[in-house]
Amino acid sequence: MRVIVIGGGTGGMCLAHGLRRAGIDVRVFERHRTRTDGLHGYRVGIDPDGSRALKACLPPEVYDLFVRTCARPPETFAFLDERLRRTLTVPLRPPADDVNDEKSVSRMTLRQVLYTGMADAVRFGSDFTHYERHPGGTVTGHFADGTSATGDLLVGADGTGSRVRAQLLPHARVEDAGIVAIGGKVPLTDETRALLPEDVFPGIGLVLAPHGMACILHVMEFPWGPDGSSPLPGDPTADHVNWGISAHRDRFPAGVTGFDGPRLVAQTLAMTPRWSPALRRLFTLTDPTSCFPITIRTSVPVPPWPTGNVTLLGDAIHTMTPGQGVGANTALRDAHQLVRTLTAGGSLEAYERRMRDYGFAAVAASKARTGGDQLVHRPVVGRLALAGQRAFLRTVDRVPALKRRFEASLYTSRGGDREP
């Protein structure tokens, strides 16, 4: 079998590793010109689903490199108000092994790990245009530079704007979820560490604020420390804090997605005048070159399609909001399932059916948590909804049995205790 993978992102590269380990001829075609193009150094949370897939697909030495380049695992998940007052702090489960835990990794570092040992399988600068099926059962992918590649199966792993999906499922839609976000990165220093509550170290903080605004805080401390360097050549990843604010699109000015870094920082400050001075100071210290805006989008589920020699995985079929933080993990789960299908002689139709089931379930659950139609975004009712959220979180914080159930739900919703 010869497999053509369109897209060298997280899911596509995990798939390529798994197929190569199984002795299947695989080639990856990536539109970016180098392995570091188009990358932001932000956190990716790898849950047990993701770790399970990576361990199954990557060679042992590459999986070990992945584990060694993860940041310090988060120990707490803290819910805060806009003044950085705690409403709930949940302890996260300590690692039981190298799979069943929550890992934090730099997106840039993860990409470099996934390219390790695959130089001969990846062709950069390959801008996919369309595919062509042949009567003998093969399929050819065509690229903007006039080149092409022929195989027995073509896999679209080319993200939210997938051209493979556009041709295979022209009726499939990706829609605006009604939310805009701004992200930034701040070097972790003594000053910036002092600006955040103790509950956020080491861990994750989520600020729930009036007007439906939210702010995620990720502390990223790496094994090599502030004075060391990543074991991956050319990887600039160092200790830092990621932050990201989000709100209904109507709270942002027109054209915000075209703002440069300094204007994005200024916009963040303009939207948070009554927030904690410490948090606003953190925004001020942000490296403006690290800032970027994003319009949150979500897929509309599609019914089953006739199975052929072209299929999809990851954001190419089930783009989701960051509400549950499982987008990358679901792509990795897809890759794992597709490798198992192809190596065990299973039915591609069965892979697609199972992938649609869990993938679109994750889409719905993520939109329910981060979508413009939530009550917190509505005037008047939004204030009541926020008050209800905070009252619930404070109650959970005070009742040990409820806190244990809450912690267990965080674990199981991210793949803990799930059968592969």
3D structure, described in words:
With 420 residues, this protein is of the alpha/beta class. It contains 13 helices and 17 strands. β8 and β9 (139-143) form a beta hairpin.
Order of helices and strands: EHEEHHEEEHEEEEEHEHEEEHHEEHHHHH
* Overall radius of gyration: 21 Å
Number of strands: 17
The percentage helix is 25-40%
Strand arrangement across the biggest beta sheet:
5-4-13-14-15-12-16
Helix tally? 13
Tell me the structural class.
alpha/beta
- Shape type: globular
Unreliable runs? none
Cα separation of the termini: 24 Å
Mean pLDDT: 93
Strand content: 15-25%
The description of the largest β-sheet is: 7 strands, mixed
Topology:
Layout (H helix, E strand, L loop, with lengths): L1 E5 L3 H12 L3 E5 L13 E4 L1 H10 L2 H9 L7 E5 L5 E6 L11 E4 H9 L6 E2 L4 E6 L5 E5 L4 E4 L1 E4 L6 H6 L5 E14 L2 H5 L8 E6 L5 E7 L19 E9 L12 H11 L5 H8 L7 E8 L10 E3 L2 H4 L8 H17 L4 H22 L11 H18 L1 H14 L7
Parallel strand pairs: 1-2, 1-11, 2-7, 4-13, 11-17
Antiparallel strand pairs: 3-6, 4-5, 8-9, 9-10, 12-15, 12-16, 13-14, 14-15
Helix pairs in contact: 1-2, 1-4, 1-10, 2-10, 10-11, 12-13
